[in-house]
Amino acid sequence: MEFYEVIRKRRSVRKYQSKKVPDDILNRILEAGRIAPSAKNIQPWHFIIIRDPEIKNKVARACRGQHFVAEADVIICGCAREKLAWGRMGGYMSSFAVDLAIAMDHIILAAANEGLGTCWIGAFNEKEVKEILRIPEDVRVVALTPIGYPAEQPRDRGRKPLNEIVSYEHY
To answer: Which residues lie below 8 Å from residue 75, measured CB to CB, with a gap of 6+?
Structure first.
């Protein structure tokens, strides 16, 4: 697909087929996350690939009961090492969440390019996810996404026009 077409066609998928995602496709998607930019090129991220049905079900429960998450063949848990990340973004904050978000967006768009569905999951209990996936205390869970073959094509929910979200020279 052409790049802008991928961006326009990407949707949040909440229903998946039971079909497996081939390893070569998953590896291409993960490579897209690996090469994402990060502040000072620190790359503070770590991705946990979850395919075990029992673990997927536990993670889905920790995602505030969003059971569709476990329907997908794969769940990717995007983590970041807060203390490793650049600590002065904007002069006041750590870049860990932004760095991870950029990498996850690369992953999500690469999945869309492969004909796969995803759904950015920000509603989760970090403590529970960390326990289930044995994530070290100093590592933060920033986002998760299921990845799989869509069982439905979600409708276009629309976006605000540019004139509502863009200004020039001043806010």
So the answer is: 49, 50, 56, 59, 60, 69, 144, 145, 146, 147
Per-residue pLDDT tens digits for 125-165: 999 999 999 999 999 999 999 999 999 988 888 999 999 99
Using CA atoms, how far residue 11 sits from 47, 67, 153, 165, in Å, is 22, 18, 8, 20
Which strand (E) or helix (H) includes residue 146?
strand 139-148
Name the residue ranges covered by the structural domains of the chain.
Answer: 3-149
Which residue is associated with the tokens 């897209």? 32
Tally the residues of the chain: 171
Write the CATH number of the domain with boundaries 3-149: 3.40.109.10
